[in-house]
Amino acid sequence: MVNESIKPLTVYKASAGSGKTFTLATEYIRLLVKNPQCYRNILAVTFTNTATEEMKMRILSQLYGIWKQLPESDKYLQNIQEKTGLAPNVISERAGLALNNLTHNYNYFRVETIDTFFQSVLRNMARELDLTTNLRIGLNDYQVEELAVDQLIEDLTTTDVMLQWILKYIMENISDDKSWNVIAQIKKFGQNIFKDYYKEVSITLEQKMGEAGFFENYTTCLRDLRKAAEEYMKEIGESFFDTLEGEGLNVDDLSSKQRGIASFFNKLRKGTFDPSIITTTVANHLENIEKWCPKTNPRRDAVLQVVESSLIQILKCAVEAQEKQWKIFQSSNLTLRHLNQLRLLSSIEKKVREINETENRFLLSDTQQLLHSLIDGSDSPFIFEKIGTQLQHVMIDEFQDTSTIQ
Q1: Using CA atoms, how far apart are residues 288 and 291, in angstroms rounded to an integer?
Q2: Is the dihedral of CA 206, 208, 214, 219 positive or negative?
Q3: Which of 63, 176, 344, 365 could disulfide-link 99, Cβ–Cβ 3.0 to 4.6 Å?
Q4: Distance between CA 397 and CA 399 in Å, rounded?
Q5: pLDDT digit string, tens, across residues 184-216
Q6: Widest distance between CA atoms in the chain
Q7: Nearest 5 degrees, angle CA 366-CA 369-CA 375?
Q8: pLDDT tens digits, residue range 57-87?
Q9: What's the pLDDT tens digit per position in 151-182?
Q10: How many CA atoms lie within 13 A of 343 on its CB side?
Q11: Contact present, 99 and 64 (Cβ < 8 Å)
């Protein structure tokens, strides 16, 4: 709850079913009991239509119950009496006045979803946002996105570069044992254009994708990174066997021979360095050099000397490098696999914008980003002035569900 005079912030953190809605409803009623006219200055924000209706009905029914002194409203009455110090008959009288005010000025009863609130802001700021008066708000973002994908597919020609992207996408799916029929998957993937994380980078992404040679250069860079990570780990594996040979030793001088620590380095030089290679054997050899050579080996002292002087350091280097190089390898690999999808995403977004401009439509999902960019680095009270609202109290239900932009 935010009050303009002292600006406190109260956070109620509790599990489901523990009374958060009761607390919010009581707080709303308490404000009305203190001043039956202050309903014009309260905004209660919820995140679903169901929650909105539940909150409104609870406030109205409990105001009625307190006014008529019904037994089922005793809990609310006692709670408000404790917080205000007012006599029950005074609370009852003011509850009746507040109920009368709300029912006769229902449009000022601002208990609404976050999207409804954003829409009211958008409508009142159409002029500042350069939005036409006959602009239509599109409520079903996904329906528009599916239409955009259908149009993109229909407009494809045999020479269209996008056809090549889709064919690569199909081949990737087949290699992953997925269906070749990817249209439904493309539509589902295309819904990412409505996510906050995509909207934040969509402009930069479009600019980069539009640069001549960017995609080819970026692809080459990723492949080089992937290859460098693999080669780095291969070299560590090779250095182990080179050191053994240089010291006149071989794998048979080590514990468990090919199945022991040599197996770890053998995988490295073959280009296998995923996390599964860091086994118990590797950990034991790091902790205790005695593990490197069996006691029955007549050359044990010489072997352990080489281990202590160089082999243990090679093992430490390999283990320390594995996590970093694997991240580079996997990140490059996954990015390369999904770059074609990313290009598809950019094309879908463009088509969605084209359709919306043609039909003079503004998508609901764009409202938050638009308002966010409007107040970024500036005074947000300007918005409240424009919508003719002086909010002194803001209540937000289920705050943990909000996105950063919300």
Answers
A1: 6
A2: negative
A3: 63
A4: 6
A5: 877 888 888 878 778 778 888 878 877 888 888
A6: 100
A7: 140
A8: 999 999 999 999 999 999 999 999 999 999 9
A9: 888 887 777 777 777 777 777 667 666 666 67
A10: 23
A11: yes
Q: Which of 10-14, 330-334, 365-369, 378-382 has the lowest mean pLDDT?
A: 378-382
Locate 58 and state its tokens: 């609870």
Q: Which residues pair with 238 in a beta bridge?
A: none
Residues 6+ apart with CB under 8 A from 375: 382, 383
Residue 79 is encoded by which pair of tokens? 């709670």
Which residue shows structure tokens 């705050």? Answer: 399
Q: Based on C-alpha coordinates, what's the Rg of the chain?
A: 33
Enter the tokens of residue 35.
């001043």
Tell me which residue has tokens 């290679």.
277
**Which residues lie across from 136 on neighbouring strands?**
361
Q: Which tokens go with 285?
A: 């050899």
Q: In the structure encoding, which two tokens stand for residue 302, read together? A: 């010489």
Q: Which residue has the tokens 């030089």?
A: 269
Tokens 């329906």 belong to residue? 143
Question: Would you state the structure tokens that stand for residue 61, as one six-digit string?
Answer: 């029914």
Q: Are 20 and 73 in contact (CB under 8 A)?
A: no
What the block records as the tokens of 73 is 């409203």
